[in-house]
């Protein structure tokens, strides 16, 4: 198909909505190291996972055999309201950059949560309801996950308590209002509603809070509440499974329009939008059949992959989760008040960590002011105000496109525009006022975080 025939929106029909999710764990050449029970240091069993998590989600977490897992009809019916999401050719951005590269973005921000998070939230709430639970707890960093889960719980009639990282709650008060409108109870974290929250506050009353700390609080509440489980918006393998809908649709659309990508790229917080985008592409990459590069983008302020250690660590500050083998800055690492709340996580999903460790993907790290410069350029040309998280991706995409301008290469760059930035206006205001700063942790800052990684034989 010649270039000119590629429309701006590469749309799919409802019939082309995937019927199954894609499970990367079934195709990894070497499985990632299993989660460990911190008490015994033995691999966790699926039964142990069913303590804090919903049964079906625990089963999915342990599924390393089924490449395709059917999407329940009720979840698929919900997806139909917001999906298939458009894959958009960024003609206007290309023109503004004067690049010969072709840029395509999968837009996941077209729902009230303003992000891809609803793809997993709706699945998780569905399984909780099916199991007969009455309430859920969770944490939220930037607020997108909390909003998405509030929507999903409202849809299936479940109560929800959301621990929101304190700095985000202060920066984005209206996020709280949206969640409350959907019926959720929102508590800034750390709080005095949990033992771990009280302990963290006693140690550091002025803390900004962190995702790791909010996770501990949400877990603690779930464990002491009947018919209540804890759900997580990123980092675990079953979340990436649900997000594979992003990549599956992208792949179908690219094939439909006969486009072979050269670069797949997206930002990583816990790894879910990136993992979702690359899921159906990873098999060819592993087999050596693919010609594309896969690039993850992380903030220089929270550099889990580029500067972290590959080790067993807790997913939370309170050391309540199983130990996961992942790239980590240490469960005690508290990132600076970077605006990309969704990327302020000390760890990384184990599949993504393994793929990085084995050399299948590469990573870019980008600084905040350059990220917002890219965000504004994108907003002015493509008509969407991007989320700060997604703007990390845009920064890296623009850099790639400018490189093509120098070399004359017509690379086809595909990225996930994971969300919109309408609740991040404080950050945009600071960028516009030139009061934004780029805090990059020093080696000493990182050493403090690394000291909190457990000293166990598996990490020797
Ligand atoms: C949460 C979030 C991210 C980062 O989380 P991942 O799990 O790594 O995808 C990125 N973009 C947006 C818009 C988000 O809400």
Describe this protein with a few key phrases:
four-stranded parallel β-sheet; 460 residues; alpha/beta; single chain; 19 helices; binds pyridoxal-5'-phosphate; 41% helix
Explain what this protein looks like in three dimensions.
Helices cover 41% and strands 16% of the residues. The protein has helices spanning 46-49, 55-62, 73-82, 91-97, 118-130, 144-156, 166-171, 173-181, 195-203, 211-224, 237-256, 272-278, 282-287, 304-307, 350-357, 368-382, 388-407, 425-433, 443-450; strands spanning 9-10, 20-22, 68-70, 87-89, 102-107, 135-140, 159-165, 185-189, 228-230, 263-267, 293-299, 309-314, 323-328, 362-366, 412-417. Helix 4 crosses helix 16 (368-382) and helix 11 crosses helix 12 (272-278). The longest helix has 20 residues, at 237-256. The radius of gyration is 20 Å and the shape is globular. Bound molecules: pyridoxal-5'-phosphate. Pyridoxal-5'-phosphate is lined by residues 115, 117, 142, 144-145, 234, 267-274, 342-343, 387, 389-390, 418-419.
